[in-house]
Write a structure and sequence with these properties.
Layout lengths: L2 H28 L3 H39 L4 E2 L8 E3 L3 E3 L9 H6 L22 E10 L6 H14 L5 E4 L2 H16 L10 E15 L8 E15 L12 H12 L2 E6 L1 H7 L2 H16 L10 E6 L5 H9 L3 E4 L7 E3 L3 H13 L6 H10 L5 E5 L21 E3 L10 E3 L9 H8 L1 H8 L4 E3 L12 E2 L19 E7 L4 H21 L4 E7 L14 E7 L1 H10 L2 H5 L11 H11 L7 E7 L23 H11 L2 E7 L7 H6 L3 E4 L5 H7 L15 H4 L23 H5 E2 L5
Parallel strand pairs: 4-7, 4-8, 8-9, 9-12, 17-18, 17-20, 20-21, 21-22
Antiparallel strand pairs: 1-2, 2-3, 5-6, 6-7, 10-11, 10-15, 13-14, 16-23, 18-19
Bound molecules: guanosine-5'-triphosphate and magnesium ion.
Length: 734
């Protein structure tokens, strides 16, 4: 009910009641005789009736308008016009939550009442927080180690600043304020992630801002801003405490007690960790049983907490591509960066179910059902969250070919110690779970105003995807075609596996380099060694190493001789199924950026590359850096002429990668004809007639009669066809 109308009504009642009763009383006192007195009393009754009726109508109208307001603003707290008065919880009892230990708030969930803001608040557009709706909440974070709980908190401040209109986050205590400024300095300033949490951290935060509610976006006359203040107590435990192995460890019991008393829980599910460890279901069940026990026998059939289920690290290439391929992505039309996201709620829930099913062998498929079994369905909401956000390059728009915002120095899949941020963070969906838990209806008001545009599943497929076109044909006169001679020989050697195999590979490569260096003293030679990703904490990792780059042949031979197979062999146990060819290729491609000279790339080894993502038909774990050897090789060959040669161990090379790496020349370590191999790559003149077993172009006679400087003006069509560049349309990359 409008304030002016209400005040006028009550004024009328007051004047009516007071003035008329005074008049009637005076009249009655002065009345002469019983008849006159009775007449005054009669007037008194008649006059009182309409004013009483007006009063009753006003009371009823007031009641109705409050009930309407309550329906729209269910947040569990009654607000007053002054936040310093504290808040009233549930039954109206004044409440001042301790920021360092959760209070009896769990019980409050069961008797959650509706928010009734001062009716004037919503109308006072642009008001400061003096008259804000104030909400007091205890939120617990729950998730296994490394699932991104602390990073989420550290990114919250940035997420709030990004909101429209922007929000503010302050520490409610000195320790919390210090935490916020340190986390900001660490993540935004130094590009570092937070350290692993040691036990249980308690924070007190004050979130203040405004929610725009009312008409549809862009209709200012119907919009209004509602100032809001959240007093949050946040519990951030170490993920170790969620693990079943910790049994009934006192710290773990304390955590469960804290969670039991909290109003809302943010549950972190990290698909990358789950693919590696597969323990989310088991630990969820264990903790949830402890929670049930803690709530006691009088608790309702399901746990009363509100749970925001967060699919963490949505920016991880394996997670992001899964969402993209399944068509879950949307863009917020108002987002200046055009970041893709997954709509909260139903869509995110479906994606969560998909991820759980994809990880089925580990039991994860049971997790989604278990969450719905232990919490009330309308108390659960799903979010796809990225605290690190997507990388934004100079274009200041999301780039589907370059969005990963992490730099991984050398981890296994879950070794987070050496991971840093690549650029500034733009958190995606970090504010939303917190807002939903604190004030669901304000969240609905905010999210209801968003306009999403669907990203079609195929819309980015042309980028980074291979399309085939007809192989190029030679334009030069037959038999006289010149083959460009590589300026640069790049050797990539696998230094994993049995000692004697490594030794034979090194010997063979030494032989090749010596032979070609002797014939072309100006040739530059590079040496890159690679092993396998560790993919688990138990396995050691041998990273890609560049031992020599663009040096003389003799120097490269010395580097090769310096490779120590004994030391390399010591690195066992190592992952045996694959070798990090994709990372070695990425390193080579990086170093060749901007150079257009023809190169020969010789790879020595036998193991297949790590795939970019988990494949259902392959047991090999994906590359932790999500490097895709095929894409890198395409790019490498697209920008310059690359002759590809492979020398494989005697037990044979496995996988398509070797077919492509040996596109122009292939030989076995034990019986390779080094001269012929080198000639097929254009590194040596080929003696004798063309090899009839090779495609016509490969067997053609290279022409070495040109001077070294002439190489760049040769017919680009004349280079031996690289399978990769010749068969695949690279225009899609531009
Ligand atoms: N790609 C990506 N990685 C993330 C993100 N958030 C966290 N990480 C990575 O996950 C690691 C662990 O994050 P934390 O926030 O420390 O995880 P936690 O759940 O607090 O871990 P504990 O304190 O050990 O329980 C970080 O060091 C990052 O490498 C994210 O949004 N995207
Ligand atoms: Mg932590």
């Amino acid at each position: 009910m409008r304030r002016g109308f209400r005040e006028a009504g009550w004024g009328l009642v007051a004047v009516g009641v007071v003035a008329v009763s005074v008049l009637v009383t005076i009249g009655a006192i002065r009345a002469h005789g019983d008849a006159a007195f009775d007449r005054w009393v009669g007037w008194a009754s008649i006059d009182a009736l309409p004013f009483a009726a007006i009063g009753i109508v006003l009371v009823l109208l007031e009641k109705i308008s409050r009930a309407g307001g309550q329906e729209h603003r269910r947040t569990g707290v009654a607000a007053s016009g002054n936040s310093s008065r504290g808040v009233e919880i549930g039954d109206g009892k004044a409440q001042t939550d301790s920021l360092h230990s959760p209070t009896e708030t769990g019980a409050r969930n069961q008797k959650e009442t509706l928010l009734t803001p001062d009716p004037g608040i919503a109308e006072r557009s642009g008001d400061d927080t003096e008259s804000a709706i104030t909400v007091c909440r205890t939120i617990g974070l729950w998730g296994l180690p490394g699932t991104g709980k602390t990073t989420y908190l550290a990114a919250l401040n940035k997420a709030l600043a990004q909101a429209s209109p922007p929000w503010k986050l302050n520490g409610a205590t000195e320790a919390s304020a210090n935490y916020l400024s340190n986390a900001m300095a660490r993540m935004l300033g130094r590009g570092e992630f937070p350290r692993a949490t040691a036990s249980i951290d308690y924070f007190g935060f004050v979130m203040t801002g405004e929610i725009q509610v009312g008409g549809p976006p862009g209709v200012p006359s119907r919009e209004r801003r509602v100032p809001v203040r959240f007093d949050l107590s946040v519990i951030d435990p170490s993920g170790e405490l969620a693990r079943t192995e910790r049994g009934r460890d006192p710290e773990r019991v304390k955590l469960v007690r804290d969670l039991a008393k909290s109003d809302g829980i943010i549950f972190f599910f990290d698909p990358v960790r789950e693919a590696e460890c597969g323990d989310a279901y088991e630990t969820f069940m264990d903790t949830v049983h402890m929670l049930e026990y803690e709530m006691g026998p009088s608790a309702p059939a399901r746990l009363p907490h509100h749970v925001a289920v967060c699919i963490a690290k949505f920016d991880e290439p394996s997670v992001f591509s899964a969402a993209r391929e399944s068509g879950y992505l949307v863009r917020d039309k108002a987002d200046p960066f055009g970041f893709p996201r997954i709509a909260d709620g139903r869509t995110a829930e479906k994606f969560f179910d998909d991820l759980c099913c994809a990880l089925a062998p580990t039991g994860t498929e049971l997790l989604s059902t278990a969450i719905r079994r232990y919490f009330f369905e309308d108390h659960i909401k799903y979010f796809a969250v990225s605290s690190a956000g997507f990388y934004v390059n100079e274009s200041m728009r999301f780039d589907p070919d370059d969005y990963y915002n992490l730099v991984i120095d050398r981890p296994s899949l879950i070794d987070w110690d050496r991971v840093a941020l690549r650029g500034p963070i733009y958190p995606v969906n970090v504010f939303e779970p917190m807002l939903w838990l604190a004030a669901p209806d304000l969240y609905e008001a905010m999210s209801g105003r968003r306009a999403y545009k669907r990203v079609e599943p195929g819309s980015w497929e042309g980028r980074g995807k291979v399309r085939r076109k007809k192989p190029r044909t030679s334009s030069g006169p037959p038999g006289t075609r010149r083959i460009a001679r590589p300026d640069h020989l790049i050797c990539m050697i696998d230094i994993g596996g049995p000692d004697d195999e490594i030794r034979s590979r090194i010997e063979r490569l030494c032989q090749l380099v010596s032979v070609v260096a002797e014939s072309s003293p100006g040739l530059r030679v590079s040496l890159v060694s690679y092993g396998a990703h560790s993919v688990s904490r138990r396995l050691r990792e041998e990273p890609v190493n560049v031992h020599a780059w663009a040096v003389q042949g003799a120097v490269a031979v010395r580097s090769l001789e310096g490779l120590n197979p004994d030391a390399a062999a010591e690195m066992t146990p190592a992952y045996r199924r694959a070798a990090e060819i994709e990372c070695a290729l990425a390193e080579v491609a990086r170093r060749l950026t901007g150079q257009r000279e023809p190169v020969a790339l010789v790879t020595v080894g036998a193991r297949p590359a790590f795939p970019a993502r988990m494949a259902s038909d392959s047991p090999t774990l994906p590359c932790p850096l999500r490097n895709d050897w095929e894409t890198i090789l395409h790019r490498l060959c697209h920008h310059r002429r690359v002759a590809l040669g492979a020398i494989v161990s005697d037990h044979g090379a496995v996988g398509e990668v070797w077919t492509q790496l040996g596109a122009h020349a292939m030989g076995a370590v034990s019986d390779i004809d080094i001269r012929r191999f080198a000639a097929n790559l254009g590194l040596l003149p080929l003696a004798g007639t063309p090899d009839p077993s090779l495609p016509p172009e490969r067997g053609e006679q290279p022409d070495y009669n040109h001077r070294h400087e002439d190489r760049h003006v040769e017919d680009p069509q004349a280079w031996p066809p690289c399978l990769v560049t010749a068969e695949k349309d690279m225009t899609a990359y531009h």
